[in-house]
Amino acid sequence: MAFEDKTLVCKECGKEFTFTAGEQEFYAEKGFENEPARCRDCRDKRRAQTAARRPRCPSSRRMTVRFIAVTASTSIALRRKGIFA
Fold first, then answer.
1. How many CA atoms lie within 13 A of 17 on its CB side?
2. Which residues pair with residue 20 across a beta bridge?
3. DSSP character for 34?
4. CA 81, CA 85: separation in Å to the nearest integer?
5. Among 11, 12, 34, 10, which Cα is nearest to 23's?
6. Could you tell me if 35 and 62 lie in one domain?
7. Number of independent structural domains in the chain
8. What are phi and psi of 74, to 5 degrees?
9. Per residue of the chain (85 residues), what is the pLDDT tens digit?
10. Which domain holds residue 9?
11. Same structural domain, 32 and 9
12. pLDDT at site 2
C-alpha cells in the first residue's frame, strides 16, 4: 500500500504538521488505527509531564519488599509451629 504525506492539525496548539508516509507505514505495521492528534512538540511536552508525575520508586524495589515481608511472615509461622528455629 502506497502512503502519501498528510497535513494534520494539532489538537493542542492548532499548528499544522506533516504525517509523513514513513510514519504512516510505521503506524500500519504496529497496527495503530488512529492518526496522531498532536504535533511532535506537543507529544514531547505531554510525555515529559506524564514522566514527571510517575513515582520515582522502581517496581523491583516494591517486589523486593513484598518478598521480604512474605519470607518474614513464613518464618514466623514456621517458628510458631516449631519447624524453624
1. 18
2. none
3. S
4. 10
5. 34
6. no
7. 2
8. -65, -45
9. 689 999 999 999 999 999 999 999 999 999 999 999 999 999 999 999 988 887 666 555 555 555 555 555 555 555 555 555 5
10. 1-54
11. yes
12. 87
